[in-house]
Protein 1
Amino acid sequence: MEPRGGRAARLALGLALLCSSLDPAAAAPAGPQPPSAVGQFWHVSDLHLDPTYHITPDRTKVCSSSKGVNASDPGPFGDFLCDSPYQLILSAFAFMKDSEQQVSFMIWTGDSPPHVPVKELSTKLVINIIGNMSSTIRNFFPDLQVFPALGNHDYWPQDQLPVTTSEVYNAVADFWKPWLTDEAISTFRKGGFYTQLFESSVSSQPLRIISLNTNLYYSPNSVTVNITDPANQLAWLDGILETSSQKKEKVYIIGHVPVGYLPFARNTTAIREYYNERLVKIFRKYSGVIAGQFFGHTHRDSIMVLLDEEEQPVNSLFVTPAVTPVKNVWQMESNNPGVRLYQYDLLNYSLLDLWQFYLDLRDANKKNESNWKLEYILTKAYGVEDLKPESLYEMVKQLSVPHSRLFEQYYSNFIVSYDKTIVCEGGCKTCQICAIQYLDYSSYTDCIKQEALWR
Ligand SMILES: [Zn+2]
Ligand SMILES: [Zn+2]
């Protein structure tokens, strides 16, 4: 099936390219470069719809996702102790649509159901919620190519995603048929992952999307304990990347649970360490074809730079913040709802910039108005040229400096401007800085050990 990328959008981008008179054959002369033609795509993640959300005087009854705790300050767009009311999700997609940004596609990295006790959900409910979110997106963007990935909550019981075909994989495959090729759908039914080409009208090179089911590697997934290569996804990934490099394709990796270390927890990987080491090795081997990696799951805004064995930056990875504002009652931090726009070079898919948009939840509830706005533009906020690994590595060096104002900015963005008075110093900063640059066990633990040297 032909990808359904918005034809009008592609036409507009094609015209933009003509106007900038950039000839691919003349793209690499010495001296000042003409401005590159820019493509864009949206990234949304962790919608976590809570269908029970409603305003009621008994604050323990506002949402099931608060798990009996009093909602903090509930309003029409949600509460920091609750998952997303449908109205919040609608406001996010309405904002994206009304912004009239010309985009080539959207990536959607999973987690549609709410954080509620397992017994309050079922396979049927989880399937219904994923179906509801899929049709919500399609109703807002009927002609847009969407590349989705499964999250650890997109299964019942949560986290236990299986290594063979299942009722959920099959039902979700049916929801995602309008976006994916027959081949992608067939791989997805077997293991919850797929690959698909995005054909650009501008570049002679197509872009390959690889949507991984990293939930198979997620620590709480007891189905995959002691399996060296669940669903043979690692061997499959290696094979796809090998072919891609022979064909000189460019690849975006998308997935829900990120590789690397959690920026808010010391010595903790999001996926099991064994799988993390194996993935890092594959990503280093094929860093030349991978032009970007995009994840969700932590609900926070963070970056990672993959270094090779010589400590050279070779890959840029991004974790996009959630649409849901939910936090646990014992947590100090949460995040405002966020959605993200990436800009890339239309000719070679290298990442140029990202625009982070957010909803100030307290303000929106107070005014009964969903005033989504720009939070920051990455290159402007951190004074870097683009989103290439070298540029992000420069940025991390700036962040690492003691009392770095830029790091304060980074941390405020990490929690999507949730609370400007929260600071991250000492051990908190160590974890953040080490997680950004060191994705494997040995380099990460070295970084943690050396914290006294650079702090
Ligand atoms: Zn989530
Ligand atoms: Zn998740």
Protein 2
Amino acid sequence: MTDALDGVRQHYRATGLTERLKTALTALGPEDQRLTPQQLGALDQFHTRGLAATAELAKLAGITADMSVLDVGAGVGGPARFLAATYGCRVTGVDLSEPFVDAARYLTGRTGQSGQVSFQSASALALPFDGGRFDVVLLQHVAMNISDRTRLYREIRRVLKAGGRFATFDIVSSGGEPHYPVPWARTPATSFLLTAAATRDAIEPAGFRTLAWQDDTEAAKAWIAQLRTSGPPPSPNLGVVMGPDFAQLAANLARNLMEGRLGILTAVFEAA
Ligand SMILES: C[S@@+](CC[C@H](N)C(=O)[O-])C[C@H]1O[C@@H](n2cnc3c(N)ncnc32)[C@H](O)[C@@H]1O
């Protein structure tokens, strides 16, 4: 494990996460009551614009029931469960954080999807799969934690079938140093932002052709403005996952977007 990966693991160490989730979810009903991916949306979609962003990315990627999908940096598994419930596809999630993988398995049991959605702990830089195994790979708000982008995108290309799709939803640098702490890094030591153009320059040489390319910064700003009016959702939210300083991390992300320091990129590529 390199220093950079160790630092990222520390950031997402989430001590006692599954137990905290069990306690928080009593607000939604008893342990044996089946939950829907929608009910969990405020705590298991760990990216800007939550469930709506996952739904849009999945649509752009053209996911269908017969596909095998890999979610790289799957977090606590919200996007994977949503895709399986919406499209009927099989989804595998990998994540560096063992507590997140444990929580993802627990939440998937609570939604009754364990036969269709599975998780394992692994690094995006050494995916534990044979080549050409997946139809679609998703990467949502993960790349900013990874310095070796060449290796990241080559690994994603390796596990995709020829003609498969790579769908990414990223935070990108757009001028000036961000204010820290942010949701993916409490200091700059675990933050490896690239501009949107540099991201494309890293992805295409790994064996990809661009199919869709969208600047979603304005949509993210509108979402933030709406959250400021409505306040945080009353259901259990990402504060349960990341701890009591999450409100400050999220406020800094909002400030960085509003000040034009960061942007949001949605893009879909075809494996050549
Ligand atoms: C902001 S969360 C996003 C989680 C999920 N993609 C979502 O949108 O709900 C970033 C995730 O990336 C994972 N991650 C960061 N670097 C990673 C790496 N090198 N390999 C695998 N997972 C990684 C973290 O552990 C964390 O769960």
